[in-house]
């Protein structure tokens, strides 16, 4: 797969990407556990078929100490015993927030109640923003054909500078 367009080399795309990346920094510094952020980003990226983002979030999670078993089971988290109740709530929100067109009602009341049980207001805000952000990132990467495979842990942080 050949990259169609490099947003970073375009003046408008580059300015947008810089601000877009800045929103990710806000979320990284939030009280939402970094492991949860990576799991949520990975799951949404799997649903959206974004190889670049799957590559990035798998490698960032592994570099942060996430186990291979948990990373391999993210796609089947409902049928797994390795995720906490809080992580399961976050993964459910990620799925329902990503599959808006499929869910008809958006995020279910049951999922919302599970999220509210495990996360405080700041963490909920971060989780909602993260789901929106990763879905937007997936779309940018899929539209422009950003291939997975070449990402190295820490590249994102290094690019911010």
TrEMBL record:
It comes from the Bacteria. Keywords: Oxidoreductase, Peroxidase. Residues 24-96 form the Carboxymuconolactone decarboxylase-like domain. The keyword Oxidoreductase applies. The keyword Repeat does not apply. GO terms for molecular function: peroxiredoxin activity. Pfam families: CMD. This is Alkylhydroperoxidase. The lineage of its organism: Bacteria, Bacillati, Actinomycetota, Actinomycetes, Kitasatosporales.
């Amino acid at each position: 797969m050949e990259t169609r367009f490099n947003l970073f080399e375009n003046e408008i795309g580059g300015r947008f990407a810089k601000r877009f990346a800045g929103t990710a920094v806000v979320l990284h510094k939030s009280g939402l556990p970094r492991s949860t952020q990576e799991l949520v980003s990975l799951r949404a990226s799997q649903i959206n078929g974004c190889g670049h983002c799957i590559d990035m979030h798998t490698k960032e999670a592994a570099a942060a100490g996430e186990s291979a078993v948990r990373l391999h089971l993210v796609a089947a988290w409902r049928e797994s015993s390795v995720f906490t109740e809080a992580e399961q709530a976050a993964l459910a929100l990620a799925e329902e927030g990503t599959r808006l067109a499929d869910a008809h009602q958006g995020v279910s009341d049951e999922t919302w109640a599970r999220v509210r049980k495990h996360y405080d207001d700041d963490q909920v805000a971060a989780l909602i923003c993260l789901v929106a952000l990763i879905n937007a990132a997936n779309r940018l990467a899929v539209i422009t054909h950003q291939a997975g495979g070449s990402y190295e842990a820490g590249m994102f942080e290094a690019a911010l500078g």
